[in-house]
């Protein structure tokens, strides 16, 4: 469906009306799911456990293995789930599956809440690329895909490398490697590509990490309101920035997009720009942080990399072993079959990317972290099919340069305190990773 109603043109609701609308949107997206998940968990449902159990946030892998042992598609109380690589890949590539956020698939009230004027334009609701099917998806993706080709990104490698060195120059003694390095590298690069001021990077990181739980299911009302506020603040700033770029465009992606005004509404612009900015740094920070943590925990693997190289394959293995995006979902648009399993029209399928990436049918001895693994690149960490990550080439370059330059400069880097995991479940990584740098 084409979404033309533009929230930016709508009249602002009063405070009471705004609170009622927020409560409605929360119930439709999170409240009902929160209640159903909590009931299902008490009844032993594995998927509900995955989405609500605090222990499963720290270590979801045993639950993935249990789900996989029950079959390629496991029908739970909440929705169907898969931790099978063949099913995950098959469903992501199949045109018999679509996104779960198509308003047409929702009950009337939820549909209205999702499409009403003055709704919050975020990464998981239309018209975000992540939340629309072709043909809308094809049209939006075409507008931005040229900028992110493997070739265009390869030309950026020297800039990524010099920025990594510059950030490392600023470190000494004890540091939180996430706050002072892993988060700053990707946000600066994506800011430069898009044409948003890199000196606002701390503000972008703050908005991004407050908004990151938006990808999870079953948020509390308080959390939902915090997330919603951060997205609205970012959107407010972004609209002002579009106005500045219309007056004096630069040589960057957003300047080009604001000039597409005939084909893009303000809502579509906000959705594209917000997703690119947030996806550009909220995920790669986890690749770098997870990489540091894994290499510190596996010193012989690090020694191998320092002696013989092979950082590109190490990045693939980090993506496989500790996938920064652990899950996504799709809805069957018609009766179909995936990897030999029949799936009925309307089925919601939770795709456990982190589980597929440890499927022993594809990866021998999958619980072993092996930077020399020959088929590490078969992971689904960047998804598959039409929604395959637009920034995959950029993320690979950033991960490789960030990790290689850090460990080559500080080969004796050690952990220096308790790491703090991010509170999110879909995004897997660290908020804080204290290290000691021994030059
Ligand atoms: C290690 C880093 C990254 C990981 C693990 C990652 C992962 C993913 C995944 C799993 C999806 C698809 C989700 C689905 O199929 O439902 C996706 C889509 C996307 N990613 Fe990334 N991503 C990363 C970095 C980036 C970067 C640096 C950018 C910057 C441009 C980016 C931009 C996007 C966009 C725009 C989409 C939506 C594509 C579409 O729907 O057509 N990502 N990413």
Automatic annotation (TrEMBL):
<dbReference type="InterPro" id="IPR017972">
    <property type="entry name" value="Cyt_P450_CS"/>
</dbReference>
<dbReference type="GO" id="GO:0036199">
    <property type="term" value="F:cholest-4-en-3-one 26-monooxygenase activity"/>
</dbReference>
<dbReference type="GO" id="GO:0005506">
    <property type="term" value="F:iron ion binding"/>
</dbReference>
<dbReference type="InterPro" id="IPR036396">
    <property type="entry name" value="Cyt_P450_sf"/>
</dbReference>
<dbReference type="GO" id="GO:0008395">
    <property type="term" value="F:steroid hydroxylase activity"/>
</dbReference>
<keyword id="KW-0503">Monooxygenase</keyword>
<dbReference type="GO" id="GO:0006707">
    <property type="term" value="P:cholesterol catabolic process"/>
</dbReference>
<keyword id="KW-0349">Heme</keyword>
<dbReference type="Pfam" id="PF00067">
    <property type="entry name" value="p450"/>
</dbReference>
<dbReference type="InterPro" id="IPR001128">
    <property type="entry name" value="Cyt_P450"/>
</dbReference>
<dbReference type="InterPro" id="IPR002397">
    <property type="entry name" value="Cyt_P450_B"/>
</dbReference>
<dbReference type="GO" id="GO:0020037">
    <property type="term" value="F:heme binding"/>
</dbReference>
<keyword id="KW-0560">Oxidoreductase</keyword>
<comment type="similarity">
    <text>Belongs to the cytochrome P450 family.</text>
</comment>
<keyword id="KW-0408">Iron</keyword>
<protein>
    <submittedName>
        <fullName>Cytochrome P450</fullName>
    </submittedName>
</protein>
<keyword id="KW-0479">Metal-binding</keyword>
């Amino acid at each position: 469906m084409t979404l033309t109603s533009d929230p930016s043109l709508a009249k602002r609701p009063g405070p009471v009306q705004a609170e009622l609308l927020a409560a409605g949107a929360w119930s439709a997206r999170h409240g009902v799911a929160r209640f159903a998940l909590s009931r299902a968990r008490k009844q032993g449902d594995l998927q509900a456990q995955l989405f609500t159990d605090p222990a499963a946030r720290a270590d979801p892998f045993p639950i993935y293995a249990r789900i996989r042992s029950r079959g390629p598609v496991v029908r739970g109380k909440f929705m169907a789930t898969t931790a099978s690589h063949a099913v995950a890949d098959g469903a992501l590539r199949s045109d018999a599956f679509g996104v779960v956020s198509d308003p047409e698939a929702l009950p009337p009230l939820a549909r209205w809440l999702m499409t009403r004027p003055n709704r919050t334009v975020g990464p998981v609701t239309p018209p975000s690329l992540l939340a629309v099917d072709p043909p809308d998806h094809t049209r939006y993706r075409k507008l931005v895909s040229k900028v992110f080709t493997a070739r265009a990104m390869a030309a950026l490698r020297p800039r990524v490398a010099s920025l990594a060195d510059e950030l490392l120059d600023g470190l000494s003694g004890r540091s939180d490697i996430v706050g002072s390095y892993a988060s700053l590298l990707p946000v600066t690069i994506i800011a430069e590509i898009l044409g948003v001021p890199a000196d606002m990077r701390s503000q972008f990181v703050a908005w991004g990490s407050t908004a990151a739980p938006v990808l999870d299911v079953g948020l509390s009302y308080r959390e939902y309101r915090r997330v919603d506020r951060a997205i609205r603040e970012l959107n407010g700033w972004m609209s002002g920035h579009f106005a500045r770029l219309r007056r004096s465009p630069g040589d960057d992606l957003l300047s080009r997009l604001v000039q597409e005004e005939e084909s893009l509404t303000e809502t579509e612009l906000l959705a594209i720009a917000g997703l690119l900015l947030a996806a550009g740094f909220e995920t790669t920070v986890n690749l770098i942080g997870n990489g540091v943590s894994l290499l510190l925990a596996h010193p012989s693997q690090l020694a191998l990399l320092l002696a013989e190289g092979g950082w590109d394959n190490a990045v693939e293995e980090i993506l496989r072993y500790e996938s920064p995006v652990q899950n996504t979902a799709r809805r069957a648009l018609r009766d179909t079959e995936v990897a030999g399993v029949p799936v009925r029209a309307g089925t919601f399928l939770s795709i456990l990317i982190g589980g597929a990436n440890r499927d022993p049918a594809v990866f021998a001895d999958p619980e072993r972290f092996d930077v020399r693994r020959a088929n590490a690149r078969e992971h689904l960490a960047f998804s598959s099919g039409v929604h395959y990550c637009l920034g995959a080439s950029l993320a690979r370059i950033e991960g490789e340069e960030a990790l290689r330059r850090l460990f080559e400069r500080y080969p004796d880097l050690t952990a220096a305190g308790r790491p703090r995991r991010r509170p999110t479940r879909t995004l897997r990584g660290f908020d804080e990773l204290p290290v000691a740098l021994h030059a």
